[in-house]
Amino acid sequence: MHLTIISGATRPRERSNTAKIISVFLTGFQKCGHTAEVWYLSDRTSWAGTRAAFCENSNILFALPLYVENVPGTMLEFLESLPPKTTSGTRLSFLVQGGFPEASQGRCCECFLKTLPEQLGCAYGGTLIRGDMFSTGLLGKKHGSKMVQPFIEIGHSFGKYGYFHESIIVEYASPEYLSEKQIRQFQRLSKFSRWLMDIIAKRLGCTERLDAMPYDK
Amino acid sequence: MNLLIINTLPEAEPAAQQVICALAEKVDEYRVIHTAAMRIAPCVGCNCCWLKTPGVCALKDDYEQILKAYLEYDAAIFISGTSLGFIDHRTKNLIDRSIPLGTMYTHIVNGQMRHVPRYDKVFHFGLIYTGEADREYLELWLKRFALNFNSVSIGAFPVEKIQEVSLCI
Predict the structure, then answer these.
(1) Strands A35-40 and A2-7, sheet pairing
(2) What does the pLDDT average to over B105-111?
(3) Structural domain range at position A118
(4) Which residue from B121, B165, B167, B126 is spatially nearest to B5, judged by alpha carbons?
(5) Best exposed site among A50, A110, A193, B124 by fewest CB in 10 Å?
């Protein structure tokens, strides 16, 4: 199988969590003896090539960060520019990564993604939602590598089936919602996580309060 | 009520003019921002507005006036084109840039994690669209969008149902 992966992330490749995820996904996917090519929509100069790859290939995977409950505007612009396929046989799958831990946060986006294959003349290969990815590029390489490890198994499974099998979707989308215990734990650690964010912000050169209101009257 | 009307359609588009006239009749005060000719880049996900310059977008283009205007009006209504059954990328780009309204801090709202709003204000957001779209989905999406910023959704309306908006503002 040859897979065309299109990253819908807007961050440049070197700072993109989606790019990190794709890289690890490919480790698992290529264990099955498959080949792949990756296109990044953050590089607009490559859009013509990406469009050609979409038109020519029959296994397409969009990997994207969740942006305000749906795909990033940049990816939407690219999707709008795609001509629907006129011959059958193309499968379109989606990998959505979000910052919040719950998979339920990505369901609104998934509803839209489910409609795309038919609109673009393709079959649907499923949507895998993985949350809790915000800190992937924020807390150092070691932590980041740990966060993306599950994508080896996800990539391997995708290579085995050619689509996102229901079992892998369910396993890695967990939790759908935080349990009451997890919510209590989160609330107990709330002050600590704020403190941690303040520290990270200071390291990044922030001199204001993170809850500053710059445009308040 | 005072109303912010954000038109992403070309300024001379008859549908946009029709909507603006209809809305203008229903409110005490309004402001229209036509974005078609403005320089507004897509969000690049740099997180500066959360972690480096809290509340201020790192992209220096024409967007900042819209962010400020959200705070000055009781409600904001987007006039949008549609594509693939959803709003088009012009409006989505604009909405992606609204994240400075939230902070990096998170809390739980109705059992789900959300960003803590940056401002004490309760925003009201609405959408009026031209073309083919799944209204039910747009309603759902707008509610989810509003939830992110301690906001209330006024609803999503096809331009043909403009009279329904009047009942909601």
Answers:
(1) parallel
(2) 93
(3) 2-177
(4) B126
(5) A193
How many domains would you assign to chain B?
1
Please give the tally of structural domains in chain A: 2
A160 burial level (CB within 10 Å; 0-12, 13-18, 19+): middle
- CB–CB of A111 and B137 under 8 A? yes
Contacts of B95 in chain A (CB under 8 A): 68, 73
The CATH number for B97's domain is 3.40.50.360
CA atoms within 13 A on the CB side of A83: 9
The whole-number pLDDT of residue B167 equals 74
**Chain B residue closest in CA terms to A117:** B84
**Complex ipTM value:** 0.96
| Mean pLDDT in residue range B73-89 | 97
For residues A100 and A190, membership in a common domain is answered with: no
Q: Which pair of tokens denotes residue A170?
A: 């369910």
Average pLDDT, integer, range A131-149: 82
Task: Tell me the C-alpha distance between A110 and A118, whole Å.
Answer: 14
DSSP A24-78: HHHHHHHTTT-EEEEEETT-GGGHHHHHHHHHH-SEEEEEEE-BTTB--HHHHHH
Matching residue, tokens 């299109």:
A6
Q: Report the pLDDT value the prediction gives residue B149, as an integer from 0 to 100.
A: 84
Count how many pairs of residues, chain A against chain B, have C-beta atoms within 8 Å: 150
Same domain, A126 and A205: no
Q: Note whether B55 and A215 are within 8 A (CB).
A: yes
* Residue of A80, A101, A102 lying closest to B83 (CB–CB): A80
Across the interface, do A211 and B116 touch by the CB < 8 Å criterion?
yes
Question: What does R_g of chain B's alpha carbons equal in angstroms?
Answer: 15
Residue A7 pLDDT more than 90? yes
Could you tell me if A26 and A105 lie in one domain?
yes
CA angle A193, A195, A196 (to 5 degrees): 60
What are the chain A neighbours of B92 within 8 Å (beta carbons)?
Answer: 67-68, 70-73, 76
Residues of B in contact with A135 (CB under 8 A): none
- The per-residue pLDDT for range B67-79, each reduced to its tens digit, is 999 999 999 999 9
B87 confidence band (pLDDT: 50, 70, 90): very high
